[in-house]
Amino acid sequence: MKPPINLKHSFILLLLPLLVSCATLDIARWEAEWVELNEAMAVCRGKIASPYISFVCVRVDMTNPDIAVITNEPGPQAGTVLSTKVSSFVANYNCTVGINAGPFSPVNATEGEDRHLSGIFISKGLLVSMPDPHYDALVFYKDAVRRPVIVSQSDITDTASIETALGGFNKVLQDGIITVRNEAGAARHPRSACGISADGRFLYLLAIDGRQLSSFGASLYETGELLLRLGSDDGLNFDGGGSTCIALQDGDAVKILNSPIDNVFRPGSERAVSSCLGIQNASRPRGLFIQMPSPR
Predict the structure, then answer these.
(1) Are 129 and 119 in contact (CB under 8 A)?
(2) Residue 93 sits in which domain range?
(3) N or C, which end of the chain has less CB nearby within 10 Å?
(4) Checking phi first, is residue 65 left (phi over 0); if not, alpha (psi -120 to 50) or beta?
């Protein structure tokens, strides 16, 4: 049975774009506070006051020899993967952390269905979905799997040299410069994104909540701005909206770190997505939510 519709909540949700369209992201005084999960990973939770935006970012030290980059396996049909919730992906693939990645269709909350990918997806060296020249991608080459790069999918001509590739939408940050315009009234949505530090050492996995009274969401410019403040030099916008989810295996339990919004009337509802990016680490975090500071 579907939950009853909260008319007051739905009315406010409809007004959110108007309420925040003229606001600007106030992060001038914000500084990231990282809490170590283990030798290779740290997490940062943040809350911006104007407008209300909550986000979670996991930083991965790619130079650590104990980590492994994980993606889900291809589906039975060409160009597809089986739909999975991020929390299920983390549990089933024994990841320490996982985040949704590429855009796809159709959209719903049912797991185990074929999802057709939009753009490149390479898993364990196997080309699952072809590049889309309109979009960019996070790529791990076979000869340098610990040096991820963000490239245009139009520049990917040798897929045989790639171990892992996750297509997203477009770059929001390149060489420390935000690549999208800061337009007044730009749409704010939940966002999933990744970033890479200038020296290639750190990979950042960012989830920004949106479409909720506690977090309005971010524009593309603001997504790039947050990645930059967190330490990224390059940044890519993954699939967002109701797909945005980041989860972590904390001891024996998988916990969702953000507040996904597949159903706008049920904050916390998780969508079944397509390609996912996971990080495995033998040293699992424990007692994460006891150690993590409350978002400010």
Answers:
(1) yes
(2) 39-71+83-108+171-285
(3) N
(4) alpha
**Neighbouring C-beta atoms of residue 224, cutoff 10 Å:** 27
pLDDT tens digits, one per residue of 48-87: 887 789 999 999 999 999 999 999 999 988 889 999 999 9
Q: Which residues of 14-40 are buried (b: 16+ CB within 10 A; e: fewer)?
A: eebeeebeeeebebeebeeeeeebbeb
- Comparing CA positions, the residue from 149, 115, 155, 116 lying closest to residue 135 is 155
As beta bridge partners, residue 100 has 276
Mean pLDDT of 227-252: 95
Helix (H) or strand (E) holding 146: strand 144-152
Q: How many CB atoms lie within 10 A of CB 69?
A: 21
CA distance 99 to 58: 10
Tell me if 119 sits within 8 A of 131, measured CB to CB.
yes
Would you say residue 34 lies in a domain? no
Both tokens of 216, joined, read 């309005």
How many other C-beta atoms lie within 10 A of the C-beta of residue 147?
16
SS3 290: helix
What pTM, to 2 d.p., does this model score? 0.90
Q: Is residue 93 part of a domain?
A: yes
- Distance separating alpha carbons of residues 192 and 206, to the nearest angstrom: 6
Q: Is residue 18 part of a domain?
A: no
Q: Is residue 44 part of a domain?
A: yes
Task: Name 252's Cβ contacts closer than 8 Å, sequence gap at least 6.
Answer: none
Residue type, 243: S
Which neighbouring-strand residues pair with 272? 108
Interatomic CA distance for residues 208 and 181, integer angstroms: 19
